Amino acid sequence: MAQFFAMGGYAWYVWMAYGFAAVAIGVEIAFVRARRKRAFDALRMSVESPPPRTPPIMRAESPR
Amino acid sequence: MLINWFRFSSPVSFYPLAGSWSYALGALAALLAGAGLVVGLWIAPTDATQGDAYRIIFIHVPAAWMAMFIYLVMAGWSAATLGFNTRLSAMMAQALAPTGALMAAIALWTGAFWGRPTWGTYWAWDARMTSTLILLFLYLGVIALRSAIEDPRRADRACAVLALVGAVNVPIIYFSVQWWNTLHQGSSISFTAAPKMAMTMFAGILIMTAAAWCYTIAIVLARVQAIIVERERGAGWLESLIDLRAGGNA
To answer: In whole numbers, what is the pLDDT of chain B averaged over residues?
Structure first.
């Protein structure tokens, strides 16, 4: 197993290449998921009846 | 069987199709990538001259191919945007750009970490490397241009023109190793001759390329669904398609 990870002495190069690709793809999937969630949330907000009115004092306590 | 393809040029009929294909191809991409990694990292033999450093090929080559091909597809959708003025084609072009940039970045990064042990340098202003870097900047330029223009339909047309003009770079990348004799070596795989490598190495590249294809289509379809929801909100038809109460993951 250690021999496998050593990659014949090229461990740094091989795993930096594979690691970058894995992280980059993971980040892209996370970004797309977040974007879908944002889009669906915005759609849901626009479809559902407007939120019940809250007194200004309560809005100030909970930003957003 | 006759299929009316223009039916799917409308976001209304395309949306559910995109969802089911995205999940199926995403699963297929994971399976293929697993198989490709087993072949590439375990089964394929160590290279006689490069040792195990050559194993970077199994991500470098598929990513570089995808980076070029995604650009051509994006340019094709851009041409359709300008020619037919269809909304969905512009959304497809918009959805392709980030994944194209990702593939170009992976190709450049893995190339650097392959170049260092084999050529002695992470980077050189070689014809192929430089033109691939320009490809990455073109993708980033299309993304930046879109975010700079507020009206989406104007942004569609501006990005389409930029994408089409930039398409001239793709054949430059492809033929750069023949036109200029700089650092990057010529192609080891061609359509006209047997591959100049062991069969298991070639198989690993093919499987990883298939995985990259499936992944690209899956992620782009998932993104184009988000773009459709972002841009068609208020059009009225979305609510009937998406079960909002179930978390909206139609």
So the answer is: 89
Q: What is the pLDDT of residue B87?
A: 87
pTM attached to this predicted model: 0.87
Report whether B214 contacts B29 (CB < 8 A).
yes
Interface residue of B233, B240, B243, B245 to substitute, partner A, most A CBs within 10 Å: B233
On the question of pLDDT at B250 being above 50, the answer is: no
CA distance A3 to chain B (A): 11
Residues 117-176 of B with CB under 8 A from A: 117
CB half-sphere exposure, A44, CA atoms < 13 A: 15
> Torsion-angle region of residue A56: left (phi > 0), alpha (psi -120 to 50) or beta?
alpha
Q: Using alpha carbons, select from A21, A31, A15, A8 the residue that is nearest to residue B33.
A: A21
